[in-house]
Amino acid sequence: MKEAVYKVTFLPSQRTVTAKRGEILLDVLRRESQQVNAVCGGKGNCGKCKALVAEGSEAFPLTLTESRLLTRDEIAAGYRLSCQFKVMTDVRVKTEDSALNSAVSKPPLPKASIREISPQVRVEEFSLCRPDIDDQASDYSRLMSALVTERPGIDRLSLLRRLPHVIRELDYRGRAVLYGSEVIDILPFSNERGIFGVAIDIGTTTLAVYLADLKSGEIVAVRSASNPQSAYGQDVISRIDYAIKRDEGIDELRTAVLTTLNKLIDDLCKGGAVSKERIYDTSIVGNTTMIHILLGISPERIASSPFIPTFTGGKVFESRELDLEESIPNSKIYIMPGISAY
């Protein structure tokens, strides 16, 4: 028999999604990035995940937990606890706290730029000898020999594929963008627009991103938003518990924060009038649990004695490895080291 599917319409946006018969409303709200205040992680203890069910509430009777945690006036008005309510018919629902959304805020820019800046990313100009029958060195060897950086190389296959075309298009003169000794991009010689970096702070309650000019140290733009993982629990213990006990718990938590980060970075670039392709260095800081979840690493061992994380040291990744290539396609990502499990 085909499984019944019902419509869930969010108010006031009128956006409609589908839910399986008997699916918990809180799971629908989380899946669709509708932020909800679920302090206890959906265990039915806090009574905070209220949602106004405008239509369809009668299809699922009030639970004892709802009778205990909701006031008579709230029940009369049509409020339900989203962690208790099951979708048994088409419903129309409005979350109780309209302020709890993923809206991007724009904090004021810092008054001072970074005083001392020594980025991993820098630009080096090059001019290559044209190949001929007497000089059949590879394009790769030709470029590496022209750079003054010690032991340069290209690790990105995508750039290696572009190399023959780009150096000829640039008439053998250009600017190599390097991350340490690795060439990560090649720009036209005449292109002197800045190179930029992004700093990301993944807090338990708030996400903040900063766009910085890597030459001057100027902070160009700042954006922040609530951490959408709050819908899964207010603290790290609640989120670890969710990640452990749900089959796809860690993926849900990770997707929630990545969706908001991509949105923040996109708005950051628009606000700073900077192309996302010009961002070459990204640093991310957060407590050990937040970083484990971001990387899709189970934080299970952090929660129990002797409280052992998978890692705490600094790590460098490509944006595609963290599913951030949509917003920072050319950037290396440095995960800053943690101090301990907590």
Chain-wise SSE layout:
Layout: E1 5-10, E2 16-20, E3 23-24, H1 25-31, E4 50-55, H2 64-69, H3 72-77, E5 79-81, E6 86-87, E7 91-95, E8 121-127, H4 139-146, H5 157-169, E9 173-179, E10 182-188, E11 196-202, E12 206-213, E13 219-226, H6 236-245, H7 249-272, E14 279-286, H8 288-294, E15 315-318, E16 332-335
Parallel strand pairs: 1-7, 11-14, 14-16
Antiparallel strand pairs: 1-2, 3-6, 4-5, 4-7, 8-9, 9-10, 11-12, 12-13, 15-16
Helix pairs in contact: 6-7
- Beta-strand portion reads 25-35%
**CATH superfamily descriptor of the largest domain:** Domain of unknown function (DUF4445)
Task: Please give the largest β-sheet.
Answer: 6 strands, mixed
Gap between N and C termini, in Å?
48 Å
Strand order of the largest sheet: 13-12-11-14-16-15
| Discrete helix count | 8
State the share of residues found in helices, binned by percent: 10-25%
Unreliable sequence segments? 97-101
- Provide the CATH topology of the largest domain: Nucleotidyltransferase, domain 5
Shape: elongated
Mean pLDDT over all positions: 90
How many domains, as an integer? 3
Query: In sequence order, what are the helices and strands, one letter per element?
Result: EEEHEHHEEEEHHEEEEEHHEHEE
Which second-level CATH architecture of the largest domain applies? 2-Layer Sandwich
Radius of gyration computed on alpha carbons: 25 Å
Strand tally: 16
